[in-house]
Amino acid sequence: MRLHRRNRFANLDRIARLDPDKNADEILAITSRHEFPWDYQQGTGIAFMRDYGIPSIAALLDKTGEFEHHGVKRYDDTLLVGDEATLDGIDSERSHAALRRLNRIHGHYDIPEHEFHYVLATTIVGPVEWIRQYGWRELHPHELVAVARITTRFGELMGLRGLPTTYDGYLRLLREYEAEHFAHTPASTRLAEATMRIGRATARYPAGPLTRPVAIALMDEPLRHALGLPTQPAWFVAAVRRGLRLRARYLRHLARPRRTPYRHRPTTYPHGYTLRDLGPESMLAALDATSRP
Questions:
Q1: Residue 277 falls inside a structural domain
Q2: What are phi and psi of 229, to 5 degrees?
Q3: pLDDT of residue 209 exceeding 50
Protein backbone atom coordinates (compact mmCIF):
# COMPACT_ATOMS: atom_id res chain seq x y z
CA MET A 1 0.00 0.00 0.00
CA ARG A 2 2.83 2.42 0.81
CA LEU A 3 4.53 1.65 -2.51
CA HIS A 4 1.23 2.12 -4.36
CA ARG A 5 0.60 5.47 -2.62
CA ARG A 6 4.12 6.64 -3.44
CA ASN A 7 3.61 5.69 -7.09
CA ARG A 8 0.26 7.48 -7.13
CA PHE A 9 2.03 10.77 -6.48
CA ALA A 10 5.10 10.15 -8.65
CA ASN A 11 3.77 12.38 -11.44
CA LEU A 12 3.05 15.17 -8.98
CA ASP A 13 6.60 14.91 -7.68
CA ARG A 14 7.89 15.16 -11.25
CA ILE A 15 5.71 18.21 -11.98
CA ALA A 16 7.06 19.92 -8.87
CA ARG A 17 10.62 19.46 -10.17
CA LEU A 18 9.91 20.76 -13.68
CA ASP A 19 10.15 24.39 -14.77
CA PRO A 20 6.57 25.35 -15.81
CA ASP A 21 7.84 27.92 -18.31
CA LYS A 22 10.40 25.69 -20.01
CA ASN A 23 8.50 22.41 -19.61
CA ALA A 24 4.90 23.54 -20.10
CA ASP A 25 4.24 20.96 -22.83
CA GLU A 26 5.42 18.08 -20.65
CA ILE A 27 3.46 19.26 -17.62
CA LEU A 28 0.25 19.65 -19.62
CA ALA A 29 0.70 16.16 -21.06
CA ILE A 30 1.14 14.66 -17.60
CA THR A 31 -1.84 16.53 -16.18
CA SER A 32 -4.30 16.02 -19.02
CA ARG A 33 -3.28 12.57 -20.29
CA HIS A 34 -2.08 10.76 -17.17
CA GLU A 35 -3.40 12.40 -14.00
CA PHE A 36 -6.85 13.72 -15.01
CA PRO A 37 -7.83 12.52 -18.51
CA TRP A 38 -11.51 11.88 -17.74
CA ASP A 39 -11.82 15.05 -15.67
CA TYR A 40 -10.18 17.08 -18.41
CA GLN A 41 -12.71 15.76 -20.92
CA GLN A 42 -15.67 16.52 -18.64
CA GLY A 43 -14.39 20.03 -18.01
CA THR A 44 -14.03 20.53 -21.76
CA GLY A 45 -17.66 19.48 -22.15
CA ILE A 46 -18.69 22.20 -19.69
CA ALA A 47 -16.59 24.64 -21.70
CA PHE A 48 -18.65 23.83 -24.81
CA MET A 49 -21.83 24.58 -22.89
CA ARG A 50 -20.62 27.94 -21.61
CA ASP A 51 -20.19 29.19 -25.17
CA TYR A 52 -23.92 28.72 -25.76
CA GLY A 53 -24.74 31.18 -22.99
CA ILE A 54 -23.41 34.04 -25.14
CA PRO A 55 -26.26 35.00 -27.52
CA SER A 56 -24.04 36.02 -30.46
CA ILE A 57 -21.97 32.82 -30.23
CA ALA A 58 -25.10 30.68 -29.84
CA ALA A 59 -26.71 32.33 -32.88
CA LEU A 60 -23.73 31.53 -35.11
CA LEU A 61 -23.36 27.94 -33.88
CA ASP A 62 -27.09 27.36 -34.22
CA LYS A 63 -27.14 28.81 -37.74
CA THR A 64 -24.43 26.44 -38.98
CA GLY A 65 -26.50 23.42 -37.91
CA GLU A 66 -23.32 21.47 -37.18
CA PHE A 67 -24.31 20.46 -33.65
CA GLU A 68 -27.78 19.39 -34.74
CA HIS A 69 -26.84 17.49 -37.90
CA HIS A 70 -23.16 16.54 -37.46
CA GLY A 71 -22.81 16.80 -33.69
CA VAL A 72 -20.54 13.84 -33.05
CA LYS A 73 -18.17 14.93 -35.83
CA ARG A 74 -18.14 18.49 -34.45
CA TYR A 75 -17.30 17.13 -31.00
CA ASP A 76 -14.59 14.82 -32.31
CA ASP A 77 -13.05 17.51 -34.51
CA THR A 78 -12.79 19.96 -31.62
CA LEU A 79 -10.99 17.45 -29.40
CA LEU A 80 -8.76 16.27 -32.23
CA VAL A 81 -7.61 19.81 -33.04
CA GLY A 82 -6.65 20.10 -29.37
CA ASP A 83 -4.76 16.81 -29.61
CA GLU A 84 -2.95 17.84 -32.78
CA ALA A 85 -1.95 21.14 -31.18
CA THR A 86 -0.46 19.57 -28.06
CA LEU A 87 0.71 16.00 -28.67
CA ASP A 88 4.09 17.05 -30.08
CA GLY A 89 4.23 20.39 -28.25
CA ILE A 90 2.46 23.66 -28.91
CA ASP A 91 5.28 24.98 -31.12
CA SER A 92 5.81 21.80 -33.12
CA GLU A 93 5.12 21.69 -36.85
CA ARG A 94 2.21 19.36 -36.13
CA SER A 95 0.69 21.97 -33.84
CA HIS A 96 1.23 24.82 -36.29
CA ALA A 97 -0.43 22.80 -39.06
CA ALA A 98 -3.45 22.15 -36.83
CA LEU A 99 -3.77 25.83 -35.94
CA ARG A 100 -3.51 26.83 -39.60
CA ARG A 101 -6.39 24.46 -40.28
CA LEU A 102 -8.39 25.94 -37.41
CA ASN A 103 -7.74 29.48 -38.62
CA ARG A 104 -8.98 28.60 -42.10
CA ILE A 105 -12.18 27.18 -40.63
CA HIS A 106 -12.75 30.28 -38.51
CA GLY A 107 -11.93 32.50 -41.47
CA HIS A 108 -15.28 31.57 -43.03
CA TYR A 109 -17.11 33.40 -40.25
CA ASP A 110 -17.15 36.99 -39.03
CA ILE A 111 -16.20 36.46 -35.39
CA PRO A 112 -15.04 39.39 -33.24
CA GLU A 113 -11.79 38.92 -31.37
CA HIS A 114 -13.35 39.36 -27.93
CA GLU A 115 -15.48 36.24 -28.57
CA PHE A 116 -12.37 34.25 -29.41
CA HIS A 117 -10.84 35.46 -26.15
CA TYR A 118 -13.86 34.27 -24.21
CA VAL A 119 -14.06 30.87 -25.93
CA LEU A 120 -10.35 30.34 -25.28
CA ALA A 121 -10.92 31.20 -21.61
CA THR A 122 -13.62 28.54 -21.35
CA THR A 123 -11.20 25.88 -22.61
CA ILE A 124 -8.84 26.46 -19.69
CA VAL A 125 -11.33 27.37 -16.95
CA GLY A 126 -13.64 24.43 -17.67
CA PRO A 127 -11.11 21.65 -16.97
CA VAL A 128 -9.33 23.46 -14.13
CA GLU A 129 -12.50 24.24 -12.19
CA TRP A 130 -13.80 20.72 -12.73
CA ILE A 131 -10.57 19.27 -11.32
CA ARG A 132 -10.74 21.69 -8.39
CA GLN A 133 -14.19 20.37 -7.53
CA TYR A 134 -13.96 16.69 -8.45
CA GLY A 135 -10.30 15.83 -9.03
CA TRP A 136 -8.50 13.28 -6.87
CA ARG A 137 -5.86 15.83 -5.84
CA GLU A 138 -5.32 19.57 -6.01
CA LEU A 139 -3.52 21.03 -8.98
CA HIS A 140 0.07 22.08 -8.36
CA PRO A 141 0.89 25.76 -9.08
CA HIS A 142 3.22 24.56 -11.86
CA GLU A 143 0.23 22.96 -13.58
CA LEU A 144 -1.68 26.24 -13.58
CA VAL A 145 1.30 28.11 -14.99
CA ALA A 146 1.83 25.49 -17.69
CA VAL A 147 -1.79 25.29 -18.81
CA ALA A 148 -2.02 29.09 -18.98
CA ARG A 149 1.19 29.27 -21.00
CA ILE A 150 -0.05 26.68 -23.52
CA THR A 151 -3.48 28.34 -23.74
CA THR A 152 -1.96 31.74 -24.44
CA ARG A 153 0.37 30.32 -27.07
CA PHE A 154 -2.56 28.51 -28.67
CA GLY A 155 -4.37 31.85 -28.88
CA GLU A 156 -1.31 33.60 -30.30
CA LEU A 157 -1.13 31.00 -33.06
CA MET A 158 -4.76 31.85 -33.81
CA GLY A 159 -3.64 35.46 -34.27
CA LEU A 160 -5.15 36.74 -31.01
CA ARG A 161 -3.57 39.62 -29.11
CA GLY A 162 -3.80 40.92 -25.57
CA LEU A 163 -4.54 37.54 -23.99
CA PRO A 164 -4.10 36.87 -20.28
CA THR A 165 -0.89 35.13 -19.29
CA THR A 166 -2.04 33.55 -16.00
CA TYR A 167 -4.85 31.23 -15.00
CA ASP A 168 -6.34 33.88 -12.71
CA GLY A 169 -6.37 36.24 -15.68
CA TYR A 170 -8.39 33.76 -17.76
CA LEU A 171 -10.76 33.12 -14.87
CA ARG A 172 -11.32 36.85 -14.42
CA LEU A 173 -11.89 37.28 -18.18
CA LEU A 174 -14.50 34.52 -18.17
CA ARG A 175 -16.38 35.79 -15.13
CA GLU A 176 -16.46 39.40 -16.31
CA TYR A 177 -17.52 38.43 -19.83
CA GLU A 178 -20.32 36.21 -18.56
CA ALA A 179 -21.54 38.85 -16.12
CA GLU A 180 -21.96 41.21 -19.06
CA HIS A 181 -23.11 38.85 -21.82
CA PHE A 182 -24.76 35.72 -20.39
CA ALA A 183 -28.39 35.59 -21.51
CA HIS A 184 -30.87 32.92 -22.53
CA THR A 185 -32.01 32.55 -26.11
CA PRO A 186 -33.86 29.70 -27.86
CA ALA A 187 -30.65 28.98 -29.78
CA SER A 188 -28.76 28.38 -26.54
CA THR A 189 -31.28 25.75 -25.46
CA ARG A 190 -31.25 24.01 -28.84
CA LEU A 191 -27.46 23.80 -28.76
CA ALA A 192 -27.41 22.53 -25.17
CA GLU A 193 -29.96 19.83 -25.92
CA ALA A 194 -28.04 18.79 -29.05
CA THR A 195 -24.79 18.63 -27.07
CA MET A 196 -26.36 16.43 -24.39
CA ARG A 197 -27.51 14.08 -27.13
CA ILE A 198 -23.92 14.03 -28.39
CA GLY A 199 -22.77 13.17 -24.87
CA ARG A 200 -25.12 10.24 -24.77
CA ALA A 201 -24.04 9.07 -28.23
CA THR A 202 -20.30 9.24 -27.44
CA ALA A 203 -20.39 7.87 -23.88
CA ARG A 204 -18.11 4.89 -23.26
CA TYR A 205 -20.66 3.41 -20.86
CA PRO A 206 -24.44 2.82 -20.99
CA ALA A 207 -25.58 6.35 -20.20
CA GLY A 208 -29.32 5.89 -20.69
CA PRO A 209 -31.89 8.47 -19.65
CA LEU A 210 -29.70 9.89 -16.88
CA THR A 211 -27.32 11.66 -19.28
CA ARG A 212 -29.39 14.83 -19.50
CA PRO A 213 -30.33 15.28 -15.81
CA VAL A 214 -26.78 14.49 -14.70
CA ALA A 215 -25.35 17.06 -17.13
CA ILE A 216 -27.78 19.70 -15.88
CA ALA A 217 -27.07 18.83 -12.25
CA LEU A 218 -23.38 19.58 -12.81
CA MET A 219 -24.00 23.07 -14.19
CA ASP A 220 -23.67 26.18 -12.05
CA GLU A 221 -26.83 28.23 -11.79
CA PRO A 222 -25.79 31.11 -14.10
CA LEU A 223 -24.99 28.60 -16.83
CA ARG A 224 -28.21 26.62 -16.33
CA HIS A 225 -30.28 29.82 -16.52
CA ALA A 226 -28.44 31.01 -19.63
CA LEU A 227 -29.18 27.71 -21.34
CA GLY A 228 -32.83 27.72 -20.29
CA LEU A 229 -32.65 24.27 -18.71
CA PRO A 230 -34.90 23.04 -15.90
CA THR A 231 -33.96 22.91 -12.23
CA GLN A 232 -33.07 19.43 -11.02
CA PRO A 233 -34.18 18.17 -7.60
CA ALA A 234 -31.79 19.24 -4.84
CA TRP A 235 -31.37 15.64 -3.65
CA PHE A 236 -30.39 14.55 -7.15
CA VAL A 237 -27.84 17.35 -7.61
CA ALA A 238 -26.32 16.50 -4.21
CA ALA A 239 -26.18 12.79 -5.07
CA VAL A 240 -24.46 13.38 -8.43
CA ARG A 241 -21.83 15.64 -6.92
CA ARG A 242 -21.30 13.33 -3.94
CA GLY A 243 -20.77 10.45 -6.33
CA LEU A 244 -18.03 12.34 -8.14
CA ARG A 245 -16.29 13.17 -4.87
CA LEU A 246 -16.44 9.51 -3.86
CA ARG A 247 -14.82 8.67 -7.20
CA ALA A 248 -12.05 11.15 -6.38
CA ARG A 249 -11.43 9.48 -3.02
CA TYR A 250 -11.26 6.08 -4.67
CA LEU A 251 -8.75 7.33 -7.25
CA ARG A 252 -6.63 9.00 -4.57
CA HIS A 253 -6.43 6.08 -2.16
CA LEU A 254 -7.06 2.89 -4.13
CA ALA A 255 -6.54 3.33 -7.87
CA ARG A 256 -3.22 2.72 -9.55
CA PRO A 257 -1.68 5.51 -11.64
CA ARG A 258 -2.36 5.42 -15.37
CA ARG A 259 0.41 3.66 -17.28
CA THR A 260 -0.30 4.92 -20.81
CA PRO A 261 -1.31 8.42 -21.93
CA TYR A 262 -4.96 8.98 -22.77
CA ARG A 263 -5.88 9.66 -26.39
CA HIS A 264 -9.32 10.64 -27.61
CA ARG A 265 -10.82 7.82 -29.69
CA PRO A 266 -13.05 9.53 -32.23
CA THR A 267 -16.28 7.79 -33.14
CA THR A 268 -16.30 9.65 -36.44
CA TYR A 269 -12.99 8.24 -37.66
CA PRO A 270 -12.72 4.58 -36.59
CA HIS A 271 -9.95 3.97 -39.15
CA GLY A 272 -7.95 7.15 -38.51
CA TYR A 273 -8.04 10.72 -39.76
CA THR A 274 -5.95 13.45 -41.33
CA LEU A 275 -6.20 17.20 -40.90
CA ARG A 276 -8.15 17.33 -44.16
CA ASP A 277 -10.97 15.42 -42.46
CA LEU A 278 -11.38 18.02 -39.72
CA GLY A 279 -13.89 20.79 -40.26
CA PRO A 280 -17.60 21.36 -40.97
CA GLU A 281 -19.03 19.07 -43.61
CA SER A 282 -20.35 22.06 -45.55
CA MET A 283 -16.90 23.57 -46.09
CA LEU A 284 -14.51 20.61 -46.36
CA ALA A 285 -14.28 20.84 -50.15
CA ALA A 286 -13.71 24.59 -50.02
CA LEU A 287 -11.02 24.22 -47.36
CA ASP A 288 -9.13 21.65 -49.40
CA ALA A 289 -9.47 23.68 -52.58
CA THR A 290 -7.86 26.80 -51.11
CA SER A 291 -4.74 25.26 -49.58
CA ARG A 292 -3.34 22.23 -47.89
CA PRO A 293 -3.32 21.82 -44.10
A1: no
A2: -100, 150
A3: yes
